[in-house]
Write a structure and sequence with these properties.
six-stranded antiparallel sheet; alpha/beta; 14 helices; VC0802-like; 455 residues; Carbamate kinase
């Protein structure tokens, strides 16, 4: 079996879904388990519905719900105009889902209170709409397709908006559910992003979580491969939206891919790699708009050459500087500091320490007020805002002669606030002013990948 995940742009409209179904048809001998995201931009629409419901704006939520229903009904007709029975089935399911959502949103409007659990129910609706329509469309095209509810398979804790998967429960449940759904069918389909607690309470895996869903399912069924179908030709040497002349990387290691995802690469969800690594399952990143392209394959490190693979970035970060003379020759100080980050659920990216100072970077989207307040009880704390993090990522990069020169030579006029070399020898990261980030990334990429090889 293989797992095939299709993102929002791969299921954006009739043309995209028709192309996606054609790709799936070509994989039928490998028994595909298909994982789909919501249609492009639908999750954003659902977030807006949730936000408007929270402030009791019934008129706005009603208009947005009408947009949601209209788009999916129109899509069903476009896809299945030649198959009235399957079209009717899909439309009935869309109306049922939208009616239930409308009733639920109405209840939230009445309360004027949006819990995390309620928000998870609202924002996960897009995957149920898309998966039901695509399932009907596949059956209408002669691909017998079984439907599976991801909430019966992807079990998490009670963090409703960013559920932590229970790998043991997932491994116990998924094989039987997939096997049953495959009886008499050519393929099976389910939802990405969507999950539930062991008691059946709805949760989600966080934005971009469909990749994670695919990897968890692949782990559970011992898939021969996990395919992430997106709108770019694999993993590239830099974000093509910021940098010209990027190159597709044919092969990278799990470790490199994990670093790239964590340090800003948009192609993969940061958590995708872990379940696949545990089972040594290759991950392919492919372009649904160019199905014949090679894309990128992610493999074990011993199958990958040394060398720089990419320049990644996080555009908007904070640098938290913690100064205290109590650090000097004192055990337990670091533990005390990082327990505060842990208790407040603030994740740290880079760390740099000296005799009396700790500097860390965190994503600007995280709430740090409590962290700063608690740290200030025993240290001087300064927060630098509007910073960006740039990471040069590759395998055994410490073995590469002249890497520091090649990386920092283009940055002679750029102020660097912090440098961190990962102990894994996979990344070299540093912090610059946000205003300088784009130019810095372009210059480094040009120096590393366009002038001469760094390998």
């Amino acid at each position: 079996m293989i797992v095939m995940k299709f993102g929002g742009t791969s299921v954006a409209d009739c043309q995209a879904i028709t192309r996606t179904i054609s790709i799936i048809r070509g994989k039928l001998p490998q028994k595909p388990v298909v994982v789909v995201s919501a249609l492009s931009k639908v999750t954003d629409l659902l977030y807006r519905i949730a936000d408007q419901a929270a402030v009791r704006n019934r008129m706005e939520t009603s208009e947005l719900l009408d947009q949601l229903r209209s788009r999916h009904i129109g899509l069903a007709h476009d896809l299945m105009s030649d198959s009235p029975s399957f079209c009717h089935q899909a439309c009935a399911k869309v109306n049922d889902i939208c009616d239930n959502l409308g009733s639920f949103v109405g209840a939230v409007c009445s309360l004027g209170e949006l819990s995390d659990r309620s928000k998870a129910i609202i924002i996960s609706t897009g995957e149920y709409l898309s998966s039901n329509i695509i399932c009907c469309a596949m059956n209408a095209r002669g691909i017998r397709t079984g439907f599976m509810d991801a909430r019966r398979m992807i079990i998490t804790d009670r963090d409703f908006l960013k559920g932590e998967p229970d790998s043991d429960a997932i491994k116990a449940k998924v094989p039987g559910i997939v096997s049953a759904a495959y009886e008499g069918n050519d393929a099976v389909i389910t939802q990405g992003f969507v999950s539930a607690t062991a008691e059946g309470e709805p949760t989600v895996l966080g934005r971009g979580g469909s990749d994670y869903s695919a990897s968890l399912i692949g782990m559970a069924i011992d898939a021969s491969a996990i395919e992430i179908w997106t709108d770019v030709d694999g993993v590239r040497t830099a974000d093509p939206r910021k940098v010209e002349n990027t190159k597709c990387i044919e092969r990278i290691s799990f470790e490199e891919a994990a670093e790239m995802a964590h340090f800003g690469a948009k192609v993969l969800h940061p958590l995708t790699i872990e379940p696949a690594v545990n089972k040594n399952i290759p991950i392919y990143v492919l372009n649904s708009m160019n199905p014949e392209g090679k894309g990128t394959v992610i493999l074990q490190s011993n199958m990958i050459d040394d060398g720089v693979k990419s320049v990644s970035f996080k555009e908007n970060i904070l640098v938290i500087n913690i100064f205290s003379t109590k650090m000097i020759n004192t055990s337990g100080f670091l533990k005390k500091v990082f327990e505060i980050f842990s208790v407040n659920k603030v994740s740290v990216d880079l760390i740099s320490t000296s005799e009396a100072n700790i500097s860390v970077t965190v994503d600007s989207s995280q709430k740090i007020d409590r962290v700063v307040e608690e740290l200030s009880g025993f240290a001087d704390v300064y927060v630098d805002r509007n910073k960006s993090q740039i990471s040069v990522i590759g395998k055994n990069i410490t073995n590469l002669k002249g890497l520091l020169q090649k990386t920092f030579a283009p940055l002679s006029d750029c102020k660097i606030y912090m440098i961190s070399q990962g102990a894994s020898y996979v990344n070299l990261s540093f912090v610059v002013d946000r205003d300088n980030m784009t130019d810095a990334v372009r210059q480094i990429h040009k120096y590393l990948f366009e002038n001469e090889s760094c390998n």
